[in-house]
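Here is one chain, start to finish.
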Amino acid sequence: MRIIVIGAKGDIGQAVCAELGARHELVLAGRSSGDLRVDIADRSSVEAMYANAGAVDAVVCTAGDVHFSPLADFTSEDFMSTLREKVMGQVNLVLAGLERLPDGGSFTLTSGILDREPIRTGASAATANGALGGFVKAAAIEMSRGLRINVVSPGLLDVSAPKYGSWFSGHDPVSSRRVGLAYAKSVEDAATGQVIIVD
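Its structure:
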């Protein structure tokens, strides 16, 4: 398959590329690096990415900025920035890609653990993750031509623990390889409308 991976340089993106790159052709996309440039929060940028990518069989997104702040300090714009980047950015990839992918193509989005295991300062991330789970479940029942959609919801990755572990007291980090395998399941298997949890 030929697969677009958005956010390939991040910890999750690298796990995805390590697993899928052994068997498939990857087209890497990101805001500041990769084969293609894209700002997923900007629908016109997403359209341009698809136009420049040519034919692809699947889309994997591991991108989406999230704002962290104590709840009392959050503003409406802080929440909206997370929703624009993390939620609508990934929704844009799906809406713009519905007519781009071939029969049987797939979308794999990324949420995370914080809607089921919240942390202090993570309210907007938890909100975004829950929204993405709802979106893929609803979108899956309306997709035609055998198109599929799932969202992977990983815990804190082992490679991310040195940087973010202090935020996740009591969390047992998950292996990058297991996270990569979850994306392989979404892309290569038959599941659709699923929240694929990696704890």
